[in-house]
């Protein structure tokens, strides 16, 4: 009953202001809210421009209603209206983001369809090279370890010889020719031991050399290849679904998906309905993935015909909760604005949003990727030859 009261108050003030424009703007809305004979009489009097009778009945009707209708805090109405405006702003931002993401997804799927197999070959070659690098490093580590063990053996033998030479030298007369010759051999053996110790030190530094970066590069190359295979599979599956649809059906699917997502996005609905909204968004996205136009149309109909409102501006009447939700929606708006600004700076978006001739672009990319594949194939061939050698 609050709406007819407020609408009649507006009309009453408009009559006092002698502004029939306001009266005519409110009249159709009032007519849709008629609930009793007095309201029907007021509508008829206003339509007949019998403002005297209309004013009299409006005044009486308002006085009667104020005596029975509970007081309504105008701050609640103001907060609900403010929240409704913010929700609409958030809805438009979400739709703008969804539209851009949709455009990026379509471009990525097209890229995967056109260049995915070539990229798969390139990533597999990079993975092969990374694995070969690890094998080379492991072989080098084994070689160094074997050299170190040989160096240890030679050093041990040299030390034993040094002990023997020392004992022989000590047993000779100090000023004899034999003692001088033995001392010379001792010096040579000491030099050999010093050389072996230096070699051992160099080999030790090689044994403790960090090999984690090479292994990490190999693991990254493997993961990148596996991720690409999964993405290509998904893109090909979506492309297969799209090929079964006409161009009009594809356009309709995108339009209905965006329309439905604006009605049930978790960031838009009242907090108590977030889980339900999340479930519906999952269904929408899954239907979009498989090109199920009928499922999206059915979900949109459910949302449009829902008996319970989902927006907080329609559900909340508590001033504190309304103000809290206003703060939350403003935060969502600020975050989305930042996301859109960041998206506009991304290289992929700048390419997609400015790309004119897609066919020329893909031909150029195909040529560049083919040359890269040939280079990698040569590197793999050389790496395999080195391993055999």
Number of alpha- plus pi-helical segments: 14
Report the mean per-residue pLDDT as an integer: 86
Helical residues, percent: over 70%
Helix-and-strand structural type: mainly alpha
What number of domains? 3
State the end-to-end distance.
93 Å
Largest sheet: none
The share of residues in extended strands comes to: under 5%
Order of helices and strands: HHHHHHHHHHHHHH
Radius of gyration over all CA atoms, rounded: 41 Å
Ranges with pLDDT <50 over ≥5 residues?
none
Number of strands: 0
Coarse morphology: elongated
Short description:
With 389 residues, the chain is mostly helical.
Task: Report on the architecture of this protein.
The protein is mainly α. The chain folds into three domains: 2-72, no CATH class; 78-121 and 213-388, no CATH class; 142-212. Helices cover 86% and strands 0% of the residues. It is built from 14 helices and no strands. Helix 9 (274-289) packs antiparallel against helix 10. The model has no long low-confidence stretch (mean pLDDT 86).
What secondary-structure arrangement, pairings included, does this model have?
Layout: H1 2-17, H2 20-31, H3 37-47, H4 51-68, H5 74-170, H6 177-207, H7 212-243, H8 247-264, H9 274-289, H10 293-304, H11 312-315, H12 319-345, H13 347-354, H14 358-388
Essential attributes:
389 residues, mainly alpha, 14 helices, coiled coil, J_dom_sf
